[in-house]
Design brief:
heterodimer; A: mainly alpha; MetI-like fold; B: about 270 residues; mainly alpha; 13 helices; about 0% strand
Chain lengths: ~280, ~270
């Protein structure tokens, strides 16, 4: 019995140590989050509150600000829609097809995640300008890509593709080909098999991927600032406007547009969370 | 859907062409443009004071940011992966915030906090501490945008391995540090390494947030990604592509590491 004594006391010590250990990671997590993330965002929000609702609204809805929202959101949405289709197709190819170079193809999808945005902007501006590898194919038809809104669109396509592919791919992996074969052997046509059997379970994942890509594209700065000419009302996007206002020491202007962008990303984040819950329910 | 070979070939071709034109061709182009005139031209284009200063600054910022964010990521992963509490989902969403906030907005928020009229700006100016347009602001901006990576990669691993081994070690008399170092760390090492590599890649490559807080002064506060932009703007296309090739190479190595780590974690 006596031999149990030290064991007991050491367990008690462990319990004590356990509770102090709970506190240290907690303190670091909360402290670091507050210092790095929450404090700056709080500074942004309080600054925008001091501007006052009337003036805030005025700055947020000037014709220039409205045009940057339109250019940012409509272009990002268009890129999201195209990539919603193309990304799903790419994920399908990767999961269902065997072809030489498949693994390299799979790795290439992640390049936009791994390359700095200024590098992406530099390359896109160079190959899509009138004398670039791809730009010169379009120039004879009077289509200019770099330094126009089309350039913004291409940059957004580039940065948002991996989000859709990487969200749809795991869902497709779990989809069993047997179900398609069953639908088919029961007499469904190809179109019916696609629309009624394959597509429905993929829709939550496709929408989640599109929302993730959209969220990234709406906030994108680096590649767009290089590939676009950033001329107001033509290809000036909202994040670049924030940057320009800061350069002109217009802190109120930068704060207002920045807050609008922050709100949009919070709404998109909420939407993404809801979509993910939906897809989880679908999976069950 | 799959039985008609013609349809399969068409779908495969569309996907391959799309990805090749949109991603693969631009990636190859970086290296073509940097090296097609020969190694000497490449070397001469980047061998300039501003480039070396940008490289040095980038390495300093990364060397500070990555360890700090790794420690934070481990703590946050433990808090979320090993505890059940109210607001757990909220905390997870907050940690994810930097993924959805525009880098420019992150930079703006830092400028407003540490600027002359900001909450901390006046205080730090009184103490003669320079944050904006200097290394501290670049570190803060980089830490902001790279914050979620380690936690994001470690949390699922922690949840998957469960608590049994740690509890066993603890009942056998191991102290907290021993439990972490001998039991938890070996179990999460690949996930942790992957998170660190992602943090590292993003820290080396962050452009938007750093551009806002650094002032992008060549030879002083320009990091490598900013050097790429400034060189391009100043019609030094060769220097821009030379440094872009180096950053792209780091990106490629990151992807290769990722591939290796993924095969390791699946076995």
């Amino acid at each position: 019995m006596t031999s149990l004594q030290p064991n007991l006391s050491s367990t008690r010590q462990n319990k004590q140590a356990h509770s102090t250990r709970i506190s240290l990671p907690w303190v670091i997590t909360i402290g670091y989050l507050s210092l790095i993330l929450l404090l700056p965002l709080a500074a942004l929000i309080t600054r925008s509150l001091t501007i006052g609702p009337v003036e805030f609204w005025q700055i947020a809805t000037t014709p220039l600000a409205r045009s940057t929202y339109e250019i940012t959101f409509v272009t990002a949405l268009a890129a999201g829609l195209i990539n919603g289709i193309m990304g799903t197709l790419v994920a399908w190819i990767l999961v269902r097809y065997q072809f030489p170079g498949r693994r390299i193809f799979d790795g290439v999808i992640d390049i936009p995640f791994a390359v700095p945005t200024s590098v992406a902007g530099l390359v896109l501006a160079t190959i899509y300008n009138d004398s670039g590898w791809i730009g010169q194919l379009f120039a004879p038809f009077g289509i200019r890509i770099a330094f126009t809104r089309l350039g913004v669109f291409v940059a957004m396509l580039f940065i948002s593709l991996p989000f859709i592919v990487r969200t749809v791919q795991p869902v497709l992996l779990e989809l069993e080909p047997e179900i398609e074969q069953a639908a088919w052997s029961l007499g469904a046509s190809e179109a019916q098999t696609f629309w009624r059997v394959i597509l429905p379970p993929l829709i939550p994942a496709i929408l989640t991927g599109m929302a993730l890509g959209l969220s990234r594209a709406v906030g994108e700065y680096g590649s767009v600032v290089i590939v676009a000419s950033s001329i107001p009302f033509r290809d000036l996007i909202a994040p670049v406007l924030v940057f320009q206002k800061l350069e002109q020491y217009d802190y109120d202007g930068a704060t207002v547009i920045g807050t609008v962008l922050l709100l949009v990303s919070l709404i998109l984040l909420l939407l993404i969370n809801l979509l993910q819950q939906w897809s989880r329910r679908y999976a069950d | 859907m799959l039985t008609k070979p013609k349809a399969s070939v068409i779908l495969l071709s569309i996907a391959l062409i799309y990805v090749s034109v949109l991603i693969f061709l631009p990636s190859i182009f970086i290296f073509y443009e940097a090296f097609h005139k020969g190694i000497d031209v490449f070397w001469n284009s980047i061998n300039q004071r501003n480039f070396w200063q940008a490289t040095k600054l980038t390495l300093i910022v990364t060397a500070i940011t990555v360890p700090i964010n790794t420690i934070f990521g481990l703590c946050a992963a433990w808090v979320i992966g090993r505890n059940q509490f109210r607001g757990r989902t909220l905390l997870l969403s907050i940690i994810d915030l930097p993924f959805s906030v525009s880098p420019v907005v992150a930079g703006l928020a830092i400028v407003l906090l540490y600027g002359r009229n900001g909450w901390l700006g006046g205080l730090l100016a009184g103490l003669n501490i320079k944050i904006l347009f200097a290394i501290p602001a670049i570190v803060l901006a980089t830490a902001f945008v790279t914050m979620p990576f380690v936690a994001r990669e470690v949390i699922p691993v922690l949840e998957e391995i469960g608590e049994e081994q740690e509890t066993a070690a603890r009942t056998l008399g191991a102290n907290d540090w021993q439990v972490f170092y001998r039991v938890t760390l070996p179990n999460i090492r690949w996930g942790l390494l992957y998170g660190v590599i992602l943090t590292n890649a993003r820290a080396l490559g962050e452009f938007g947030a750093v551009a806002v807080v650094s002032g992008s002064i060549l030879g002083k506060t320009a990091t490598l990604p900013i050097f790429v932009e400034q060189a391009y703007k100043n019609y030094q296309a060769e220097a821009a592509f030379g440094s872009a090739a180096i950053l792209a190479l780091i990106g490629a190595l990151t992807l290769i590491f990722k591939e290796i780590l993924e095969t390791r974690t699946h076995h």
